[in-house]
Amino acid sequence: MPTVRKRRSRKNSRINNTRYGRRLKKRSCKSVKNRIQLECIRERWDSKKTMKQNLMELGLSIDPNRSLPVRQPNNSTNEVDDMAVENTELQKSTPSEQTDLISELEAIAANAPPNKPFVMSPSEAKFIAYLIMRHGTNYKKMVKDKKNYNQLTEGQLKKKCLQFHKSPYVYLLDSED
To answer: Are 100 and 136 in contact (CB under 8 A)?
Structure first.
């Protein structure tokens, strides 16, 4: 007779084929349209078509590696012929006219807010200021410092020092002179 643990794992591993389980599966399949965040794509999405068919109709690619082939380095002397063949392949794969969806997506990307710059925490800035005051630019000594609890490497400390000099906490160096 199997143990309780084996019975429980067998029970949990089976597929939920009850009426309720099938209904949940249908709902999850239908909600693909609701999971699309961009409204311009959501409006044009046809839930009766597959994802591949929808993306082809919208003028988008599923796999960018296939749509834009990467040129392999050749040792052949016919470079001009190779480039001509690649240009004809690219013309076949890209649509000749730009769809309105693509222009909308480009406008959204242009109006996107810029990424926030990295902001150093005050405690980290205080630590880096201490290291710079004590060791200057000698990163090997910074690594061996007793306050380097996190055991930051030489390269990590170098990056943090560069970030510190760009941050608004640079005044910590002047105040401790």
So the answer is: no
Who wins on pLDDT, 91 or 151? 151
- Report how far residue 165's alpha carbon sits from residue 34's, in angstroms, rounded to the nearest whole number: 45
> Can you tell me the distance from the alpha carbon of 21 to that of 37, in angstroms, rounded to the nearest whole number?
27
Phi, psi (5° rounding) for residue 9?
-70, -35
pLDDT over 70 for what percent of the chain? 74
Give the structural domain span for 150.
Answer: 122-175
Put simply, whether the predicted model's pTM sits higher than 0.70 gets the answer no
What local confidence, expressed as pLDDT, does residue 93 receive? 45
Angle at 171 between CA 167 and CA 175, to 5 degrees: 155
- Answer whether 133's CB lies under 8 Å from 176's CB: yes
**Triad 18, 21, 24: Cα angle to 5°:** 155
How many whole angstroms separate alpha carbon 101 and alpha carbon 40? 7
Contact 40, 104 (CB under 8 A): yes
Q: How many helices (H) and strands (E) does the chain have?
A: 12, 0
Side chain identity at 143, as an amino acid letter?
Answer: V
| Those residues with Cβ within 8 angstroms of residue 93's Cβ, 6 or more apart along the chain or in another chain | 67, 68
Q: Are residues 95 and 133 in the same domain?
A: no
Residues 98, 132, single domain; the answer is no
